[in-house]
Design goal:
eight-stranded parallel β-barrel; two-stranded parallel ribbon; about 280 residues; mainly beta
């Protein structure tokens, strides 16, 4: 592999179609698409300061680098891309990638980031921004700290462990989601979704966990959660402690320590299809 060290690149497509190259402590200044259509690239300790650095690239390994604010839309249509110990300041990163690994990555402006990606592994990620991971498939997540609404909209086949999500409307329109040992805070969690599983999770929500087909919960708490389970079908939920209020579940079993207000309107749901058990 060829090595290029301590160089500064500028101008459009500065290293277009580069192959089998390691960039060490290099700076990519103004100029769009510096490494577009590149293959088998290592970037170590580099600065990316302008738009679209890695488009249509494959077999990319990036470590200890910074993607600055104008390095927007940095990695689109990539295959087999790995980022480690990276500060990714720019928005709209990572779109339509297949085979993406992010480890110890900070994304402080994560608006519209991780869209339509497949086969993704995230570990120890800090992100701030709305609409993270929209329409992604096949994700393994461990240690995500997210502050941003509308996350995982339309996502499928996602496992999230040991994470904290401050996110209104998380997991809308999603399918086959597993959350384990997580804290999730936000209104309207999980609406219009299928096959959601929450294990040992702490959830706080206004009118969350509604309009779901297939909801499984074990060892979870629903602190300050109100009007939950509305029109939710095939529920299998065992909740530790108190639920503020439950409204019109469609079918299933709900076990809890206690329920403050139980709203079961026979003109809206068949109340015989839901079994409520409290201590």
């Amino acid at each position: 592999m060829k090595e290029i060290k301590d160089q500064t690149f500028s101008g459009e497509r500065a290293e277009f179609m580069a192959k089998d190259t390691k960039y060490i402590s290099c700076t990519f200044e103004d100029g769009e698409s510096p490494l577009k259509h590149s293959e088998n690239i290592n970037a170590v300790g580099c600065d990316f300061k302008w738009k679209y650095p890695f488009w249509y690239s494959s077999d990319i390994n990036v470590s200890d680098c910074t993607f600055h604010e104008m390095g927007r839309a940095g990695v689109w249509y990539g295959k087999n891309v790995s980022f480690e110990r990276v500060k990714y300041i720019a928005p709209k990163g990572f779109r339509r990638c297949d085979g993406l690994t992010l480890n110890d990555v900070c994304i402080p402006f994560a608006q519209e980031t991780l869209w339509h990606c497949r086969n993704v592994t995230l570990k120890n990620i800090k992100a701030t921004g709305d609409y993270l991971a929209m329409n992604c498939e096949n994700m393994e997540i461990d240690g995500l700290t997210l502050d941003g609404n509308y996350s995982f909209d339309g996502a499928k086949n996602i496992t999230v462990k040991n994470s904290v999500l401050n996110s209104k409307d998380a997991f809308w329109n999603s399918e086959n989601i597993v959350c384990e040992n997580c804290k999730i805070v936000g209104e309207y969690i999980g609406w219009n979704s299928k096959n959601l599983r929450f294990i040992n999770c702490e959830i706080e929500s206004l009118q969350g966990l509604c309009f779901i087909e297939g909801l499984y919960m074990r060892g979870c708490t629903l602190n300050e959660t109100t009007l939950c389970f509305e029109y939710c079908s095939d529920i299998d939920a065992e909740i530790k402690g108190h639920i503020e209020s439950v409204k019109n579940p469609s079918s299933g079993i709900i076990k809890a320590g206690s329920i403050g207000e139980l709203i079961m309107e026979s003109e809206r749901v068949d109340t015989a299809k839901t079994k409520i058990i409290t201590e």
